Each structure stands twice: as C-alpha cells, then as structure tokens.
Amino acid sequence: RNSKRQIECRRDIDRLNARFLGIYESLIPPDEEKVKQKQLVTLLKKLVIKEWPEAELYIYGSCGNSFGVSKSDIDVCLAIEDLDVNKSEVLLKLADILQSDNLQNVQALTRARVPIVKLMDPVTGISCDICINNLLAVVNTKLLRDYAKIDARLRQLAFIVKHWAKSRGVNETYRGTLSSYAYVLMCIHFLQQRKPAILPCLQGMEITYAVTVDNVECAYFDQVEKLSSFGSRNKESIAQLVWAFFNYWAYWHDYANDVISVRTGSILSKRGKDWTRRIGNDRHLICIEDPFETSHDLGRVVDKFSIRVLREEFERAAEIMQYDPDPCVTLFEPY
Ligand code: 3AT
Ligand code: MG
Predict the structure, then answer these.
(1) 55 in Cβ contact with 78 (< 8 Å)
(2) C-beta of 290 in contact with ligand 1 (< 6 A)
(3) Largest CB tally within 10 Å, which of 37, 66, 326, 334?
(4) The pLDDT of residue 6
(5) Can you tell me the distance from the alpha carbon of 306 to that of 129, in angstroms, rounded to the nearest whole number?
(6) What ipTM score was computed for the predicted complex, to two decimals?
(7) How much distance in Å is there from the Cα of 68 to the middle of ligand 1?
(8) Does domain 151-330 have CATH number 1.10.645.10?
(9) SS3 letters across 251-286
C-alpha cells in the first residue's frame, strides 16, 4: 500500500509541475512581440543618432534580461559619452524629437529619482522608458541574462515569483515592497544555495568579462555556454523549488542577521556590512546586496509596515504550497 501511495504522490507532483510549467509558458512573450520591440528600438535609434551621432542605445531591464513577461514595458538607456551632459536638457530635447515623430504620451520626468522620458508607440502599443547613462543597469541586465542561460529552472522560478508578486501587490517599490530586479536576485541566490547547487557564482569564477562603470568594477565569468550542465546533478522540479523558495523566505531566512549576496554566492552578515541600524531612510529590514554596487541594499525600500506585509505574503505562499489542493490557483489570487 505504501508504494501505491508513493506513486499517487508522484503523480500529484508531476501534475503540479505541469501546471507551473503551463503558467510559465503562458507568460513568455510571443515571438511577434519580441519583433515589435526590436522595431521600436530600431526606430528610436534612428531618431537619436540624428541628434547625437556618437550615442548608443541599450535595452535593459526585463526586455533585456530575459525575465520579461508578455506586455512588459521596454526600458532603454541612452548612453552619451560626454561626462558633463545635463540630463534634464537631454531628456527635454529627446522628448521634443520623439513628439515630432508622432510617438504618443511623450513625457519628460526630469525630477524623478531616475529621470526618464516616457512614450508609447501607437503602431505597436508598446510603452517605453528612456533614461540617460544608467550603465550599471545595462551591466546588471547582462548578468541576469547570463545566469538565465545556465539553467532553465531560474527563468521558470523567477517568472512564477514575479507573477505571484504582481498578483499579490508586493512588487511595488513606491509602496515599500520589492522590485522585480530584487526578486530575480532572490531567485538566483536561492538556486546558488541548493544542494547540489543549480547555479554557480559567476563573480567568484575566472574573469572573462570586465567593465568599469561609474567607478564600480563589474567583472565575472560570462562564457556561460560552458556551464549548461552545471545544475544537472540537482533533479529538483519547478514545483519543489517554488515550495522551497517560499518556505525559505517564510521560515528559514534570518531577517535579523543575514544579507543575501549573489556576488559571493553566500549569506553575509548584516554586521559585516554595517547594515544593522537605520541610516537615513535605509532600514535594512530585508537585505539583498546589489551584485555590483555592493553598498546598495535592494531591500532599502522596505519599511516597518511593508516588511510585515511581505513576510505575511511569504508565509501565505508557503502554506498554500504545503496544504492547498490547488496551489496554482490560490497562489495567484488577487489581493
Ligand atoms: P518588470 O518586468 O518591468 O517588472 P524589470 O526587470 O524591468 O521588471 P524594473 O522595471 O523594476 O524591473 O527595473 C528595470 C531595470 O533597472 C532592472 C535593473 O536592471 C535595473 N534596476 C532596477 N532597480 C534597480 C536598483 N535598485 N539598483 C540597480 N539597478 C536596478
Ligand atoms: Mg521594466
């Protein structure tokens, strides 16, 4: 009878895996959408080159890091070599140019924390944000994309986690919860920690790619095609990983002492980073070290109210994965 129960249990897990993979597949942007994104970026390049012949345009964020779901906005960075550019002037000029080319809803937000021009392409319906010289974001986009190439389970897990976070209202930095970028780093770190590991620590390996951006050295092993069987000793399925991810953040993470660090592939101590007290607005209630700007805690947006919301949501998700007969529905119920 025992082995019969095991077989039934196995079937349940297989069914749950298939459900999660189905959700993942349904979130992937179709090829036509990728083509349209490229077309819009090509148009933008053409317009930009006329005014700034030396400038480059880079896609960053979820359209460039491979963690973008269907219908995401495009994040674009205009890189201008001239170090003393006045960003506001450039943005206003850029807004002018875009407006005269019939792009819609063009707005220059020169006073935002990251100043941008927003626009919408009436042909494709795609929205786009353009920032100036935010090259660290371009480099961290490449890091995330490189990690995604190593093991398919990273992209699957991160899509599920981002979808959960958006459904549950905990992907809103202006309300004190975490950015998509932070969630992807949490997923990478989690897969680095599995036993056996599913992801390596690229910044701890031989350096094959190095750039210095804004005085920050960004260096790591980027020949990831050589690592395509790295995680194969670990056979965990996506359903197990989703369960273990939420379980970790609900019950095992030491919020009082620990910092998760993709850069080192390990847990660091808050004391070591001097992140034990509130300084200004940085409260360090959940600590996620940026892989390149190591003094930057991606949890710094979280305050004493939103940390409770976040932890309750992690606990809710862990409970659902443990006990709910149909976790794939309940997990993503709107809040
Ligand atoms: P969505 O699919 O749009 O939710 P995304 O990956 O595009 O996810 P964001 O729009 O929040 O995420 O951010 C765009 C990029 O900007 C992602 C990352 O390369 C960079 N970025 C975002 N937040 C930070 C941060 N706090 N520090 C450094 N880079 C950041
Ligand atoms: Mg984005």
Answers:
(1) yes
(2) yes
(3) 37
(4) 86
(5) 27
(6) 0.98
(7) 11
(8) no
(9) HHCCCCCEEEECCCCEEEEHHHHCCCCCECCECCCC
Q: What are phi and psi of 135, to 5 degrees?
A: -75, -25
Q: Find out whether 179 and 171 touch, Cβ atoms under 8 Å.
A: yes
Asked if 317 contacts 331 with a C-beta cutoff of 8 angstroms, the reply is: yes
Asked whether 299 lines ligand 1 (CB < 6 A), one says: no
Encode pLDDT of 109-154 as tens digits.
Answer: 999 989 999 999 998 899 999 999 999 999 999 999 999 999 999 9
Domain boundaries, the chain: 31-133, 151-330
Q: Which amino acid is at 244?
A: A
Q: In 110-149, which positions are buried (b, 16+ CB within 10 angstroms) versus exposed (e)?
A: beeeebbbbbbbeebebbbbbbbbbbbbbbbbbbbbbbbe
Class level of CATH domain 31-133: alpha beta
Structure-token pair, residue 198: 């599913």
C-beta of residue 34 within 8 angstroms of C-beta of residue 41: no
Per-residue pLDDT of 86-117, as tens digits, reads 999 999 999 999 999 989 999 999 999 899 99
> Which DSSP category does 297 fall into?
B
